[in-house]
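lol so apparently i was supposed to do this last week
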Amino acid sequence: MAGYVLDNASVATMADGYGLIGDAALTVEDGFISWVGKSAECPDKYKNYPTEDLLGRLVTPALIDCHTHIVHGGDRAREFEMRLEGASYEAIARAGGGIVSTVGATRAASEDALLDSALRRVDHLIAEGVATIEIKSGYGLDIDTELRMLRTARVIAGERDVRVRTSFLGAHAVPPEYKDRADAYIDDVCMPALEAAHAQGLADAVDGFCEGIAFSPDQIERVFARAHELGLPVKLHAEQLSNLGGAKLAARYGALSADHLEYLDEDGVAAVREAGSIAVMLPGAFYTLRETQAPPIELFRRHGVAMAVATDCNPGSSPLTSVLLAMNMACTLFRMTPEEALTGVTRAAAQALGLDDTGTIAPGKRAELAIWDVEHPAELSYRIGYNPLYRRIVGDLA
Ligand code: DI6
Ligand code: FE
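anyway here it is w/ DI6 bound
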């Protein structure tokens, strides 16, 4: 890899809020940022490097989608229609809809079919400047399919110029063959699948769904205890529909993140802060499910809890493949500021994945950059259904 200079830019380093530098330049060597600052102060050693004049455009870190279920079979469009015709979630679930219908479609899908459908969604994220994506299992709910989902996630990183971090989510739902036998499912399927995923290097973290319609804190704790024995970090879908104390459990295990959190109380916020976990906001699910209880954004601010924002791209509660729209929803629905929303898909999103080499623009960080045709970073959250990306750079200029 060679070196190059990006000049005449407005750089949002995202190191602390926007971290905006006007009339700026940055240098890249061997795929890593080597310098950033005022153009007039760019070190002489770079003056003969290939230089691109960005004509005053905004440069941010490439975006990070830190919570997706982007690998899955089938879709839930008919369920969407049924809900609009008045069917309840319970009625849909009883009719074999909901997560269970996606499980059926995912089990029936080949690895190639899973890959093809996921790549179409991944390409939408890349087109908006995303360079890092977290991808969960959780629609197999049997050992083979859970592993097939994670293998597909790993293949995506080879098919596209994107970094993938995987999360094992065997504790996502109880499959039909284990109906009313959640503990047996954890013993017979989830634990062996977790161990196989770890043994095959397929899981970077372990996730769970702690909710009345999914798994209890005790059941999640069994999975987390095994994850810790295997040396895998954890994260958790918690307090999405009720408060079962999931985020507190995640905090006890030093979770990378607790996600959703609409029903989190102040004790839970304090526990998340104490653990240094990231609160991942998922406005796409809140919007799709027409929720009314927003997460406690003001409490997160008051306690100093870092907030990430992600699409939660999944076929049921958040069929969303736009990080920019997730940012807009985080502002409009959750009242986050545009600065918090952009932090949520850069620095805080990297922290939610345990990554310290990306998410900000600083010497030593990976050269993962997004260049935008906007006057101010707030525009990235402001527009709806409009993509102002001029260019995404990962490593080299080419
Ligand atoms: N929370 C959700 O909203 C999704 N999973 C989860 O843990 C639901 C996924 C689906 O409806 O397919
Ligand atoms: Fe999710």
